[in-house]
Specification:
Structural class: mainly alpha
Shape: flat
Radius of gyration: 19 Å
Number of strands: 0
Largest sheet: none
Distance between the termini: 42 Å
Helix content: over 70%
Strand content: under 5%
Oligomer: single chain
Number of helices: 4
Length: about 140
């Protein structure tokens, strides 16, 4: 994993984990232990899914930009389908509060995306200036 990719992963995972702790506390106060369990599971799901996606995209970036874009799109599709299957499979579960789980997943996923965006804005842009590297002597 390249250093800028690791910086992006840390810059998104740490705020999401901190917000996950906050979500657990709020869920515990609002819905009791079932809500807290739901928020913990939501934080684990969001951090795991987005971290795996970041690692896959970083790995694909070593191959080529086109492969990286394909990996990003494929990982996005897999995340959406996996969350849909997870939420559908947990429809009748009574061990935790499914509404708290759903709202926590949405909130933490949006926070992860915002944190990645913030890190991306702070990073220096990478410019491939191969055009100026060519010898243009007359």
């Amino acid at each position: 994993m390249q250093s800028n990719d690791a910086r992006m992963l840390r810059g998104a995972a740490i705020p999401t984990a901190v917000a996950g702790v906050g979500a657990v506390l709020i869920a515990f106060l609002a819905a009791g232990s079932k809500g807290a369990l739901a928020a913990v599971l939501a934080a684990v799901v969001v951090i795991a899914f987005f971290s795996i996606s970041a690692v896959v995209v970083s790995w694909a970036g070593k191959i080529s930009a086109q492969t990286m874009m394909l990996a990003a799109l494929a990982s996005y599709l897999v995340k959406i389908l996996a969350v849909m299957v997870l939420v559908t499979a947990m429809d009748g579960v009574t061990i935790w509060d499914t509404k708290v789980f759903g709202w926590s997943v949405i909130g933490l996923a949006l926070l992860w995306i915002a944190a990645e965006f913030r890190v991306a804005l702070k990073q220096r842009p990478y410019i491939d200036d191969t055009e100026n590297a060519l010898d243009r002597s007359p």
